[in-house]
Amino acid sequence: MNVSESLASGDVTVPPAVSSQFQRIFVTLTIFTISLIGLLGNLSVFMFATTLKTLRNSFGRLSASQSLAEAVLCAVFLFFYCPMVLLERNTRVLIGLAYAIPCFTSLYMHLANNCLLPYVDFGWYFGVNTSADCDVIRYWIDFCKDFGVVALIAIVDVMTIVMIKVTAPGMRSANCSQTQKKRKREITFVKQALIQGAIFATELVFFFIVSTMQTKPVMIFLCTTVSWSLVHTIDPLVLILLNQEFRNMLLRNTRWRSRSTDEDDQ
């Protein structure tokens, strides 16, 4: 069988064009900036969240725990993805670190069915081997499971808001300032959870559905790698923006450090 016959029968797979060094630099700078902000933001939330009075509760501990996990995810893209794309180094050590981070369930489901995560240069993203089993795992285990968890959290948050609104008239008649402050904090927590859930749901839709409709590498990159990195970067920023006490604490720490530096210089 000659080459023309092979192409006609579909037996030969034509590899995608290799991206230029300029494109690699642009992709690396984009993900490096997003991941660096996400890493710093998540570490700030993890280190300082439980020190605030308003976050000395189960919600604050959950936020700190989630921020630690997301800091690790941002660090993977910062220290693994960026050097790999820019320097074209794909060592076994880095691959081992990338596979060791996911939880056991996802790792087992993908490896047991040979659904690995190869790096695809056409779109600069981590893809999945195409097969019937991998498609099932990708849709049901990855997309539906994650989206279902986000939807369940959103339902609970909406029910919480409804309960707060229903009991609001009685609480106002009590005219207790401490109770009113506590309710405002609870509403802020619910808003935070809803916004974070909406962001995660949007990322899942872009990553698993919208990206499959794209043919241009830039659009694939935006729907996969950029959206995945952004969701873990925006998550701690939502907590910081909605929590005034947290913002004040960060500003105080920044001023104190700058003042200490000035005194040392003198």
Automatic annotation (TrEMBL):
Domain of life assignment: Eukaryota
Database matches in InterPro entries: 7TM_GPCR_serpentine_rcpt_Srx
Keywords: Membrane, Transmembrane, Transmembrane helix
7TM GPCR serpentine receptor class x (Srx) domain sequence ranges: 32-88, 89-243
Residue ranges crossing the lipid bilayer per the database entry: 25-48, 68-86, 93-111, 147-168, 189-212, 218-242
Keyword Plastid found: no
Alphabetized SUPFAM superfamilies for the sequence: Family A G protein-coupled receptor-like (SSF81321)
Protein name (record): 7TM_GPCR_Srx domain-containing protein
Lineage: Eukaryota, Metazoa, Ecdysozoa, Nematoda, Chromadorea
